[in-house]
Amino acid sequence: MITKCMKIGAALVASLSLVACGSAAAETKTKTESGYQAVFLDSGAVFFGQLEGAGQPNPVLMHAFYVKSEVNPETKQTSAVLIRRGQEWHGPDKMTLNASHILFVETVGASSQVWQLIAKANQ
Questions:
Q1: pTM for this one?
Q2: Domain count within the chain
Q3: CATH number of the CATH domain containing 114
Q4: Are 61 and 105 in contact (CB under 8 A)?
């Protein structure tokens, strides 16, 4: 079960990387940046938000989102849904990260699909 979850997580990270790379290549210097970053962790998790304190031992991710895979029980198709952090039972308003678990951080492009979903969620 753990191996299956790790494979799904790796596939999700790979697909999100392609989305991020593809949108970055299409972006021009004249476009306004979204102000959001994609934070890739060594666990395979990816969070999107506004990173404060980058370079510090415990940076904080504000206004965080993550991608959750959902399976349609009728068609068995898997789809990715962007979820705002804070909707969990404990209602977190920020994420304090351990910098040693951050693999890399990328800017979320203002023309990317991820940013469009975040902007829609923030309306």
A1: 0.68
A2: 1
A3: 2.30.30.100
A4: no
